[in-house]
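Running co-folding for zinc ion.
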Amino acid sequence: MDTYDGAAEPNDQTALLNETEAAAAPPIMPVAELHLHIEGTLEPELIFALAERNGIDLPYSGLDELRARYEFTDLQSFLDLYYANMAVLRTEADFADMTRAYLARAAAGGVRHAEIMMDPQAHLSRGVSLETCVNGVASVLATSQEEFGISTLLIAAFLRDLSEESALEVLEALLAMNAPIVAIGLDSAEVGNPPAKFERLFARAGEAGLRRIAHAGEEGPPSYIIEALDVLGVERIDHGIRCMEDPDLVERLVADRVPLTVCPLSNVRLRAVDMLTDHPLPAMLAAGLNVSVHSDDPAYFGGYVDDNFAQLESAMVLSEFDRVRLAANSIGSSFATDERKAELLAELSG
Ligand code: ADE
Ligand code: ZN
């Protein structure tokens, strides 16, 4: 196999519906995807295709056996599989094919701007160079607007269960190679790895002119959100759902319009909430928080951003008004230029 031509067919979600159903299907809405790990878009079929191309023996006999492992009990149980499956990513072409497959699927679901996180340390630790992983993803992002109609930005995320020294070393290497990143993020196992552990990393990123975001309040307590804001100087929080346990924090987040990139299907699959109908998103909207909806690791959590919206709507958790508001928030909370934001907001209201 030379190239993988993308997991997704062009968007034609109404093609199989009869007229009544098609009329009821929500229109595809322009959105910005702000919380997405590119390694979390590796679909099972692509995992097998890349394993074959690279001569890697997977510890699963086939797709069904792999899919049977997608039953998670918490964040760590997912991370174990997520890191294990990265073994199939070896060459620039692997990273490029994964990125292309994601953009094809995202475009079909209405994504018009995407800020994509990648985990360089998870590749370096397997002997894959920074050049291979960064250039593989970035080479596809460079033409994403022309090829897929999606403007894109790249974010280097750091693994909070590793040391700050390791993160600093990788950040310096990214800066030295002039990697086309706009921001840094903080992800992986949250509890026990508070934001303050990475104070120097985030200070260095700020000095280098990078934007700063961090996962906080996914499994970790509200105090991690406060620390991410106060110690790391982040301007956007990934997840943040546990802010709802601290009314003073909610008040602060509302007053400062701090963006929270919420991932409902992820929260259900990782058991942060029991069911979609229990998700705090409606309460977050009602509190006036600047929330938007995203997919996190769509290949693992049962859906892309459009699937998150569709499932929220069928669970009666979202109204049409909320949907448009969430899409507008996603655009407003992005790091896109003012011009691009205006273009997307006009598309949304048109
Ligand atoms: N890395 C990939 N997905 C993640 C998540 N949901 N939380 C923390 N780290 C991650
Ligand atoms: Zn995430």
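Result summary
The CA atoms of residues 40 and 297 lie 4 Å apart.
The longest strand covers residues 151-159.
Job closed.
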